[in-house]
Design a protein that fits this description.
Length: 184
């Protein structure tokens, strides 16, 4: 799904919502307890989406690079596992182990976190600064399904700017991907 306008419910400058979710390791991860050195990146993702699969390598690479520069990264799966069994918690755990994900992979079983962020698709990125305010919302790159054809790396640019200057000049790029699979 391609969103054509910036979220009216979650505009740039919005404060990080408070949430606590179970990670694939079985531990709870809380937005309130994390100390943000340079920034916090929250990515709505899942297991089955071809847009996620096409851009996940870049996300893992960026997470590895920017965590060493003070960026905290978490991934959140909000899809309904009844409709999409590939996205159930057990398959999330399997994916996390197989891919050796360098960030917590969290399960939003109630879908309340996705609603709080006004998230619409996977992958969809939200980058917060040290004041816990949203500074970037959007896509990882311009062709999330096809890593070989990427021309613009929106998330990499936002991360680099946040780490070097504390600000982001391009705060929005249209997120592209599969719609979040909401419960009936």
């Amino acid at each position: 799904m391609k969103r054509e306008v910036v979220s009216a419910k979650f505009p740039i400058g919005t404060r990080l919502p408070s949430f606590s979710l179970k990670s694939t390791t079985g531990e709870n991860w809380s937005s309130d307890s994390v100390k943000i050195e340079k920034g916090l990146l929250v990515v709505f993702t899942c297991n089955h989406c071809p847009y996620v699969k096409g851009s996940e390598g870049e996300l893992v690479r960026l997470a590895t690079e920017y965590q060493s520069k003070g960026i905290i990264v978490v991934a959140v799966n909000s899809n309904d596992p009844q409709q999409y069994p590939d996205d159930n918690f057990e398959n999330m755990q399997r994916k996390s182990l197989e891919m050796n994900l360098p960030y917590p992979y969290l399960f939003d079983e109630t879908q309340e976190v996705a609603k709080a962020f006004d998230a619409a698709c996977t992958p969809e990125c939200y980058l917060f600064d040290t004041t816990r305010r949203l500074v970037y919302h959007g896509a990882i790159n311009d062709t999330p399904k096809a890593a070989a054809t990427v021309n613009k790396r929106f998330l990499a640019e936002a991360l680099e700017e946040l780490c070097s200057s504390g600000a982001v000049s391009k705060s929005f790029s249209h997120p592209m991907g599969c719609s979040i699979k909401w419960r009936n």
